[in-house]
């Protein structure tokens, strides 16, 4: 049994975002074989009442209130401070928020007391916390190669000016993100596609740095902030940590009387989900309604109360907001539509819908990295007309939709069920722990 410390800037419960469900699955797996401490922050004091939910899994939780959540004055000053520092240093504001002094101080204290064999930091933006861990193996759960989301957002931009701005931003973030990976002994991704990207970028960076050393050039100047490398400089190992789906979803029943309900789900705090909703309401849904006049749109997600909500309701959509029981939501719809135009990582909602036997229609971007086949496990389409046609086809052919949902569920069980993945995930962790035996510090 090893001592493992997991660090995330926010509390993962309730699990209303894919990233939170990833964290919970990690803690649940680790707690079956190891002593686990989870260090995080609370967005509000009410979250403290939910700590026993995590501790019931056998995890010790250390949580403090976010520095900007104590009073309005603190929030204003904290935001002003981080914005100023970001402007002066070029470090993104989110990196400053997620590596704040309170969390860093707690991390240093826990490391000294707990003496972890392995510390796992979640999300590359927490790289500022890396230097607070001076012992044991330190791994990054990167979730994805985040810069690719920005690159895809630039590709999807409608104007050349917006495309140029987003492309420049993507290049700056990419350089910073890739450099942050080098601080760690190991980097974990949620898809094999992102693992390959991280390996490729790290190898390319080593070649680039080698040529710079030979020529005597220095690329640390410019608007991209320099990240001090207190790691040995060796290439971290990069591994794929596949995502499990909650087992209870596989037992969910489909509606006995097929209808015409089309579901859309996502956290609207993510810009790619807001873009997908805009795309759905303004370009896809009008075409779909012409093809299937009786189709009903059901929208679920948290973190938004803007004009798109009114726009959706004007179109007759049912706006459910935050859905606590995801399984019940899947049981209430006849198809799930995931029309992402950009994004990255793994789409947890697609995996969960497949587990629940829901027929899924998605864009190529949405299923990237999932290794599922169009027409066998889900329907993949590009463009408003093709997407609307794919949805209409499933709604008009319940038996075809049922067969697609069944195949998707079987695929998901084979590749993402907890029973299948837990030993695989624990083996990856064990491999990283063995780095300590080889003297990697």
Report what the structure shows.
By secondary structure, the chain is an alpha/beta fold. It folds into two domains: 3-244 and 419-437, Glycogen Phosphorylase B (Rossmann fold, 3-Layer(aba) Sandwich); 247-416, 3-Layer(aba) Sandwich (Rossmann fold). Helices cover 48% and strands 14% of the residues. It has helices spanning 18-31, 51-55, 72-89, 93-98, 101-114, 147-156, 160-181, 192-215, 271-291, 307-314, 326-332, 348-355, 364-367, 384-396, 398-416, 418-437, and strands at residues 3-7, 35-42, 59-65, 118-122, 137-143, 186-189, 237-240, 261-265, 296-300, 318-321, 335-338, 360-362, 379-380. A seven-stranded parallel β-sheet has the order 3-2-1-4-5-6-7, sandwiched between helices. The protein has a six-stranded parallel β-sheet with strand order 10-9-8-11-12-13, with helices on both faces. Helix 12 crosses helix 15 and helix 15 packs parallel to helix 16. The protein is globular, with a radius of gyration of 22 Å.
The CATH class of the largest domain turns out to be Alpha Beta
Mean pLDDT: 89
CATH superfamily label of the largest domain? Glycogen Phosphorylase B
How much of the sequence is in beta strands?
5-15%
What number of domains? Answer: 2
CATH architecture label name of the largest domain: 3-Layer(aba) Sandwich
Q: List the secondary-structure elements in sequence, H or E.
A: EHEHEHHHEEHHEHEEHEHEHEHEHEHHH
Helix/strand structural class: alpha/beta
The strands making up the biggest β-sheet line up spatially as 3-2-1-4-5-6-7
* Cα radius of gyration in angstroms: 22 Å
Helix content: 40-55%
Which word captures the global form? Answer: globular
Gap between N and C termini, in Å? 19 Å
Secondary structure: number of strands: 13
Helical run tally: 16
CATH fold label of the largest domain: Rossmann fold
């Amino acid at each position: 049994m090893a001592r493992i410390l997991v660090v995330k800037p926010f509390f993962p419960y309730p699990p209303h975002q894919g990233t939170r469900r990833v964290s919970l699955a990690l803690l649940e797996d680790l707690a079956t074989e190891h002593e686990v401490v989870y260090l995080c922050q609370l967005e509000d004091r009410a979250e403290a009442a939910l700590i026993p939910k995590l501790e019931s899994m056998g995890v010790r939780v250390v949580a403090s209130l976010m520095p900007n959540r104590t009073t309005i004055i603190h929030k204003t000053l904290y935001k002003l401070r981080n914005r100023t520092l970001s402007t002066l240093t070029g470090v993104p504001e989110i990196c400053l928020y997620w590596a704040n002094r309170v969390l860093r101080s707690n991390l240093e204290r826990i490391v000294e007391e707990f003496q972890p064999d392995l510390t796992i930091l979640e999300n590359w933006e927490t790289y500022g916390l890396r230097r607070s861990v001076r012992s044991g193996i330190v791994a990054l759960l990167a979730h994805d190669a985040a810069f690719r989301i920005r690159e895809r957002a630039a590709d999807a931009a409608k104007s050349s000016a917006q495309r140029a701005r987003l492309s420049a931003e993507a290049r700056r973030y990419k350089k910073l993100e890739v450099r942050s990976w080098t601080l760690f002994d190991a980097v974990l991704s949620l898809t094999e596609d992102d693992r390959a990207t991280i390996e490729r970028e790290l190898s390319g960076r080593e070649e680039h740095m080698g040529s710079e050393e030979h020529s005597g050039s220095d690329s640390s100047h410019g608007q991209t902030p320099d990240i001090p490398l207190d790691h040995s400089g060796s290439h971290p190992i990069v591994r794929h940590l596949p995502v499990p789906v909650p087992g209870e979803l596989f037992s969910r029943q489909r509606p006995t009387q097929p209808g015409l309900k089309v579901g859309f789900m996502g956290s609207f705090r993510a810009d790619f989900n807001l873009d997908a909703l805009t795309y759905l309401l303004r370009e896809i849904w009008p075409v779909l309604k012409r093809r299937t006049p009786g189709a009903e749109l059901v929208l679920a997600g948290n973190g938004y109360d803007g004009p798109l909500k009114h726009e959706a309701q004007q179109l007759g959509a049912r706006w459910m907001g935050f859905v606590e029981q995801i399984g019940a939501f899947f049981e209430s719809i006849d198809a799930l539509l995931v029309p992402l135009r950009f994004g990255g990582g793994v789409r947890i909602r697609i995996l969960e819908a497949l587990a629940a036997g829901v027929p899924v229609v998605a864009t190529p971007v949405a299923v990237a990295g999932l290794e599922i086949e169009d027409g066998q496990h889900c329907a993949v389409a590009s463009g408003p007309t093709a997407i609307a046609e794919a949805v209409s086809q499933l709604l008009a052919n319940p038996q075809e939709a049922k067969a697609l949902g069944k195949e998707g569920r079987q695929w998901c069980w084979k590749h993402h069920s907890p029973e299948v993945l837990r030993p695989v995930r624990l083996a990856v962790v064990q491999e990283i722990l063995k780095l300590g035996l080889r003297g990697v510090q």
